[in-house]
Design a protein that fits this description.
This protein has 502 residues and is mostly helical. The chain folds into 2 domains: 183 residues, no CATH class; 310 residues, no CATH class. The protein is built from 21 helices and no strands. The mean pLDDT is 89. This is Probable alginate O-acetylase AlgI. One of its GO terms (molecular function) is acyltransferase activity. Belongs to the membrane-bound acyltransferase family.
Length: 502
């Protein structure tokens, strides 16, 4: 069930909210919590009920493992807690590996070792990459003694709550268990509904009006490259940049819709995006892009490998391994691994540059150059992320440096205007959390964060602040209503979110 489908927008979401509030009012918090778990299972099973036993089975397995781990770690020497943790993580990774990487390994073996094993064509269960990482973090933190007391029902809500179940954010248990126990949890609240719907419809607008309208440009170019055609200079740049913007608005839109839908029920999810194309370095980019994945890779992979505790060489190696595996997490293809490896190399260069003894330059023009260079590097890497295979990626890269035989003044002007429009949005327009900062729109963003994170266009103390900061008013209601109307008018074609394939 897609967030941008009529069945979800006009059926599942409003009906689930209505029933939740009624159950909460007449039967209490625990009953509404249980109802949301059942509604989430229905939401997941709508896609393919065959995989519901996998979702439920892994949830039960990890809950029981965590209980055993927390019991064992209290014994002298930690008992068998470490062994149980390793076993639990292995089972989670094995389930992910079987469904996601079996054909990749078979295909690689056939190509490299000249074997002839048949491909299994296993259907990838929806969201397995996301909920596997969520459960791994839960088990590791149980071993560390960092999981607060919770019931099985609260745990099921944590791993199954439908807004974040399919494509994130990759929610941490601390962010959920602290909210499920609130006395007013899941009760009807007009402000939560107003804030949630605003964030949700911003995300819907990003997806169906922005991402879906720029998608045909990227699709045409990358499909042509996949078909073995040569790609011209302007087509290559248009395709690369179009996908760069499409991916951002598509996944950022999904994350906004997830945060907004959860807020309707009084649950605050963590941010996943914070204007990543405004980053002034690759390190800064990964603090802003897919923030919950970056957090997982840092806390449960990079640090586990040794982090920066064993010298510069080992630190750089750990960075490279972390990013390469993070790339492979996105999909069973060498293009994804190379995309991750490219970001690993860029992070190494970034850290090496920062380690040089030099006087830092901090001016508007130096930040502008850094922002433009970071954006270009990220866009170039997206070619690997999007391309069907290495040959298609090579065709795009070749086109980027091909002499522009199709050069015309009219096309140059059109491309510059097109690029200026999209760059104006990602560089200068306030993002969702900045606009709603006064009402703490996400778990990890509030007014103090907004004050420490000034907009590129200063608004404090100006009349423009009334438009740039969200507050309950007729003016804001009209703006959100117009945005929602534009989104509904664009629902004639329903497209999947790009991260559904991961």
């Amino acid at each position: 069930m897609l967030f941008n489908s009529p069945i979800f927008l006009f059926g599942f979401l409003p009906l689930t909210a209505l029933l939740c509030f009624l159950i909460r009012a007449y039967m209490g918090r625990e009953a509404s919590l249980g109802f949301l778990v059942l509604a989430s299972l229905f939401f997941y099973g709508w896609w393919n009920p065959v995989y519901l036993p996998l979702l439920i089975g892994l949830a039960i397995f990890n809950f029981l493992m965590a209980k055993a781990i927390m019991t064992e770690r209290l014994k002298p020497g930690g008992g068998t807690a470490t062994v149980l943790t390793a076993f639990g993580v292995t089972v989670d990774l094995a389930s992910l590996g079987f469904f996601k990487y079996t054909d990749f390994l078979i295909g690689t073996s056939n190509a490299v070792l000249d074997t002839d094993f048949p491909l299994q064509h296993i259907v990838l269960p929806l969201a397995i990459s996301f909920f596997t990482f969520q459960k791994i973090a839960y088990l590791v933190d149980a071993r560390r003694g960092e999981v607060e007391p919770h019931s099985f029902l609260e745990y099921c809500f944590f791993v199954m709550f439908f807004p974040q179940l399919i494509a994130g954010p990759i929610v941490h248990h601390k962010e959920i268990f602290s909210q499920t126990k609130k006395a007013r949890g899941f009760a009807f609240d007009r402000m939560n509904i107003a804030i949630g719907l605003t964030i949700f419809f911003i995300g819907l607008f990003k997806k169906v009006v922005l991402a879906d309208n720029i998608a045909p440009v990227a699709t045409a170019v990358f499909n042509s490259a996949a078909a073995g055609n040569e790609i011209g200079f302007f087509d290559a740049w248009e395709g690369m940049l179009a996908y760069t913007f499409q991916l951002y608005f598509d996944f950022s839109g999904y994350s906004d819709m997830a945060i907004g839908a959860a807020r309707i029920f009084g649950i605050k999810l963590p941010l996943n995006f914070h204007s990543p194309y405004q980053a002034v370095s690759i390190t800064d980019f990964w603090r802003r892009w897919h923030m919950t994945l970056s957090r997982f890779l840092r806390d449960y992979l990079y640090i586990s490998l040794g982090g920066n505790r064993r010298g510069k060489v080992r630190r750089y190696l750990n960075l490279f391994i972390t990013m390469a595996l993070g790339g492979l997490w996105h999909g069973p293809a060498w293009t994804f691994m190379l995309w991750g490896a490219a970001h690993g190399l860029m992070l190494i260069v970034n850290h090496g540059w920062n380690a040089l003894p030099r006087k830092p330059i901090n001016t508007w023009w130096s930040r502008g150059i850094a922002r433009a260079l970071t954006f270009l590097c990220v866009a170039l890497a997206w070619v690997l992320f999007r391309a069907a295979d290495l040959d298609a990626a090579t065709a795009i890269y070749s086109g980027l440096v091909t002499f522009p035989f199709e050069f015309t003044a009219e096309r140059v002007i059109e491309n510059i205007a097109w690029l200026a429009f999209w760059m104006g949005i990602v560089w200068f327009w306030p993002n969702t959390q900045q606009w709603l900062a006064m009402v703490r729109p996400a778990f990890n963003y509030k007014w103090a964060d907004r004050r420490a994170d000034p907009l590129l266009l200063p608004i404090d103390g100006t009349r423009f602040a009334r438009l740039a900061l969200w507050r309950p008013s007729k003016r804001v209601a009209i703006a959100v209503g117009l945005m929602t109307a534009a989104s509904f008018l664009s629902l004639q074609r329903i497209s999947e979110f790009l991260y559904f394939q991961f």
